[in-house]
Amino acid sequence: MNIFERLDASIELSDDEKQLLDSVRALARSELMVRAEHYDKTGEFPWENVKAINNLGLNAMFIPEEYGGAKLSYTAYLECVREIAKACASTGIIWATNFHAIKPLIDFGSDEQKQRLLPRIAEGGLAALAITEPDAGSDATGMRTRFTPDGDDIVIDGGKTFITNGDVADVYVLFGKWSEIEDPKKAISVVILEKGTPGLSVVRTEQKMGHRASSTATISFDGCRVPRANLLRNPGDGLNILFSSLNKSRPSVAAHALGIARAAFEDGVEYINQRKQSGRKIIEFQGIQFMLADMATDLAMCESWLWRLGKLVDSGGTDFSIDASMLKMRATDIAMRITTDVVQLFGGYGYCQDFRVERLMRDAKITQIWEGTNQVHRQLIGRSFLTK
Question: What is the pTM of this model?
Answer without folding.
Answer: 0.96
